[in-house]
From TrEMBL:
Name of the protein this chain belongs to: Catalase
GO MF, one example: heme binding
GO CC, alphabetical: cytoplasm
Organism annotation: Lederbergia lenta
Obligatory cofactor(s): heme
Keyword tags: Heme, Hydrogen peroxide, Iron, Metal-binding, Oxidoreductase, Peroxidase
Length: 488
């Protein structure tokens, strides 16, 4: 018996606003890559006939809940944020970025901070890091960047020359490099670090009004970091130190918690703010856009089976729910495709059906077949849309919020290219002891670089951020700060 009131949903359970028309820039297009429903349909279809993560391979996870503590429904119609006291079950995966599945937890690396909220309107994934910025700001550079973090194809060893060559030729990386090389580059545990959505997203309220938003998870355990020598010792003695710590804390009833806050920017401010607010190598000043509390995340249950829950968990910033939308952030736009596609390759076309990934509400769509389809595959119900047989239908009220776009097609960079002010500000915020450790960490990391030209080019970036910063690193490497011609 068909249910004529069924809503058509994505594979993650969110309602579909329009299943007849792609999201385009105006009536003639071109089609926008942010149409995650289109990408999901096409990519799933490609795999209807029928390995370790490339990045973030080593990780640990836990279950918990998110509880709303502040009513922000004037900014978003997202159901799980709709009322104070509302609790939503969630799952989190922490990870390192560059190492393989058997690598050490205590290396200097960003930490992945990926949260899956099992809301009543489908799953919502916030796929972030423990840093508010990233190394690059356009997804087209991502495969090249990650190649530099992986193993040299000839020696099969990590390659500091490649790392610093890429960074020195990509000055937008300086803000994240400064963060990574600071004390926060090696957290004491997963519990003692903040988490960030990093990208700019859009919230939309019930009236259809939007704001730009950034997410900040503030650890209630306090920020603690590891001394480099202790971290190196632990990497040898207990390479699973962070995994063990998280499991034991929860097992012993010491449930870690984070306060979720957001920064909110009116849509029109994006055109006049002193940095491009969609550039993921930049932060918004909290003086301009102060943190507003949203709720609290508590981790209170360990996985029963690591493979089923942690290894097979799949996250994507394109796993969205009504009331939460994307921004023109070029890095985010690429991730909307790349993450879902990585999971279709790694776990399979039906990864959203696995218990750890499956939405808590009913999922209704016309995706069929594919490897490892383990439900009734839609049974004998109608398998295409539009149809005359009462199959699930789109709900126009759930269309993506519109975003005006203008311009001529082309490979165009961001308008704002100040890569030095914010890293310089970060350097000047550090205490003298923190600066000394930062400089020592960078000098140690750059010593193995084979070409002096790469070292000098990178020093010039540090110098442009802050003359003292560049000078101290040059001295540590036994080099002179490049001449003014190189610096200009």
């Amino acid at each position: 018996m068909s249910n004529h009131n069924q809503k058509l949903t994505t594979s993650w359970g969110a309602p579909v606003g329009d299943n007849q028309n792609s999201v385009t820039a105006g009536s003639r297009g071109p089609t926008l890559i942010q149409d995650v429903h289109l990408l999901e349909k096409l990519a799933h279809f490609n795999r209807e006939r029928i390995p370790e993560r490339v990045v973030h391979a080593k990780g640990a996870g836990a279950h918990g809940y998110f509880e709303v503590t502040n009513d922000l429904s004037k900014y978003t119609k997202a159901d799980f944020l709709s009322e104070v006291g509302k609790r939503t079950p969630m799952f989190i995966r922490f990870s390192t970025v560059a190492g393989e599945l058997g690598s050490a937890d205590t290396v200097r690396d960003p930490r992945g901070f990926s949260v899956k909220f099992y809301t009543e309107e489908g799953n919502y994934d916030l796929v972030g890091n423990n840093t508010p910025v990233f190394f690059i700001r356009d997804a087209i550079k991502f495969p090249d960047f990650i190649h530099t973090q992986k193993r040299d194809p000839q020696t099969h060893l990590k390659n500091p020359t490649a790392v610093w060559d890429f960074w020195s030729l990509s000055p937008e990386s300086l803000h994240q490099v400064t963060t990574l090389m600071s004390d926060r580059g090696i957290p004491a545990t997963f519990r003692h670090m903040h988490g960030f959505g990093s990208h700019t997203f859009k919230w939309v309220n019930a009236e259809g009004e939007g704001v730009w938003v950034k997410y900040h998870f503030k650890t209630e355990q306090g920020v603690k970091n590891l001394d480099v020598n202790l971290a190196a010792k632990l990497a040898g003695e207990n390479p699973d130190y962070h995994t063990q710590d998280l499991f034991n804390a929860i097992e012993n009833g010491d449930f870690p918690a984070w306060k979720l806050c957001v920064q909110i920017m009116p849509l029109e401010d994006a055109d006049t703010y002193r940095f491009d607010p969609f550039d993921v190598t930049k932060v918004w000043s909290q003086k301009d856009y102060p943190l507003i509390e949203v709720g609290r995340m508590v981790l209170n249950r360990n996985p029963e089976n690591y493979f089923a829950e942690v290894e097979q968990a799949t996250f994507s910033p394109g796993t969205l729910v009504p009331g939460i939308d994307v921004s023109p952030d070029k890095m985010l736009q690429g991730r909307l495709f790349a993450y879902h596609d990585a999971h279709r390759y790694r776990v399979g076309a039906n990864h959203q059906m696995l218990p750890i990934n499956r939405a808590k509400n009913e999922v209704n769509n016309y995706q069929r077949d594919g490897a490892m389809r383990f439900d009734n595959n839609g049974g004998g119900s109608v398998y295409y849309e539009p149809n005359s047989f009462g199959g699930p239908k789109e709900t126009p009220e759930n269309q993506q919020h519109s975003l005006p776009v203008t311009g001529v097609t082309g490979s165009v960079a961001y308008d704002h290219n100040d890569h030095y002010t914010q890293p310089g500000d970060l350097y000047r915020l550090l205490t003298e002891e923190e600066r000394t450790r930062l400089v020592a960490n960078i000098v140690d990391a750059m010593k193995p670089v084979e070409k002096e030209e790469i070292k000098l080019r990178q020093i010039s970036h540090f110098y442009k951020a802050d003359p003292e910063y560049g000078t101290r690193i040059a001295e540590g490497l036994g080099l002179k700060v490049p001449s003014q011609e190189v610096l200009s």
